[in-house]
Write a structure and sequence with these properties.
This is OmpA-like domain-containing protein. InterPro entries: OmpA-like (IPR006665), OmpA-like_sf (IPR036737). The protein has about 350 residues and is an alpha+beta fold. It has 2 domains: about 200 residues, Beta Barrel (Porin), CATH 2.40.160.20; about 100 residues, OmpA-like domain (60s Ribosomal Protein L30, Chain: A). The strands form 3 sheets. Strands 2-3-4-5-6-7-8-9 form an 8-stranded antiparallel β-barrel. Strand 7 and strand 8 form a beta hairpin. The longest helix is centred in the last third of the chain and has 21 residues.
Length: about 350
């Protein structure tokens, strides 16, 4: 047992370290939601009197919290009556088309993404589904008996595997097959919880899911390779360190062009404060505020906000103005006099994602 636990811990550490280099774009509450329809057949797990098979139809509504874990709510309607209750032929004297329904809350796990690297373009996936449910039998008012023999409501459990094939260019559709067991946990006598094959149904279900479009513009999770991003950042840093004077001259040239003055003034690096932002954001970080704190109260400043080329012109113009505004508001709160705060959209090649503060 000790060796097994050590091996399991090493496996978990390996999985974690493999996935640590990948970051997922933050999802909104209603992202990664799917709707599915299914049909299937089932029969007694003990294989006694397996025929006729019970047919079933169902619906699923689910959400994925990550490429590995998720949850769904499932409703199954059973049209057959082959030996769900222990010792009986079926659902007694049921005369309805739908003999019973099972409402279940299931957890899902994707083994393919757990043990392998997640990719949104993957075609085939293997997973598991397990959960708890509530069974209601219809059609016979005499089915309720003393001591839960023939009870018309039951507590159920579901365990199964899923074999899914993702369809379409965007992988929005998913076709799956699911062999599963639905356990009658309270088949009597009494309401004792018990897993027994004498009151369980072995079934095969097939269905299709549609994954709704998410806020990231796709139907799946969007990933960022942290290792590649770090390499890109280090490469840019090395380029900047290799030519510091040339880069500073280029930035000053662009700022002079972007901040026109009415009288001759000397602009140098000492007159400028650079505030950098993350892509598509305009929130001030602690390092940003520390840099702005070097500007003394009572000084006059002009602020120019810029954006990187990603996105539409309208978005970049609005983003650059927001960057200029947030810097202006912070400086005003510290007693600095802001003469002008303008957004210039995409400007030049070195002032992207910046708010440049010119201190007069």
């Amino acid at each position: 047992m000790k060796k097994f636990l050590i091996a399991l811990s090493m496996l978990a550490m390996g999985i974690t370290s493999t996935q640590a280099q990948v970051a997922y774009e933050k999802a909104k509450p209603f992202d990664n939601v799917y709707l599915g329809a299914e049909a299937g057949i089932a029969g007694p797990l003990n294989f006694k009197h397996f025929a006729p098979l019970n047919t079933a139809l169902g619906l699923k509504v689910g959400k994925l919290f990550s490429p590995v874990y998720g949850v769904n709510f499932e409703g199954l309607a059973f049209l057959g009556d082959n030996r769900w209750q222990t010792g009986s032929l079926g659902f007694s004297n049921s005369h309805t088309v739908v003999r019973a329904i099972n409402l279940g809350l299931n957890g899902t796990i994707n083994f393919t993404n757990l043990f392998g690297e997640y990719t949104p373009n993957r075609r085939f996936e293997v997973g598991a589904e397990f959960g708890i449910g509530y069974w209601i039998t219809y059609g016979d008012k005499h089915i309720i008996q003393t001591d839960n023999l023939g009870d018309d409501t039951e507590l159920t459990a579901k365990t199964g595997f899923t074999f899914a094939y993702n369809l379409g260019k965007d992988r929005a559709w998913q076709l799956y097959a699911e062999p599963a067991i639905i356990w009658n946990l309270t088949h009597g006598p009494g309401d004792a919880i018990q897993f027994g094959k004498q009151a369980a149904q072995l079934g095969l279900f097939v269905g299709v899911n549609y994954k709704f479009k998410t806020s990231n513009g796709t139907h799946n999770f969007k990933i960022w390779n942290v290792g590649d991003l770090n390499d890109e950042i280090n490469s840019l840093r090395n380029q900047l360190n290799a030519k510091p004077k040339e880069v500073v001259k280029e930035v000053i040239k662009e700022v002079i062009k972007e901040v026109p003055t009415t009288k001759t003034q000397t602009i140098s690096v000492e007159n400028l404060v650079f505030v950098t932002f993350q892509q598509a954001k305009y929130l001030l970080t602690a390092p940003n505020k520390k840099a702005l704190d070097s500007i003394k109260a009572g000084r006059h400043v002009q602020i120019v906000g810029t954006a990187s080329p990603e996105g539409s012109k309208e978005f970049n113009d609005r983003l650059s103005q927001n960057r200029a505004n947030v810097v202006a508001e912070y400086l005003k709160g510290r007693g600095v006099i802001v003469d002008e705060a303008t957004g210039q959209g995409v400007q030049g090649v070195t002032s992207n994602r910046l708010a440049v503060v010119y201190v007069k």
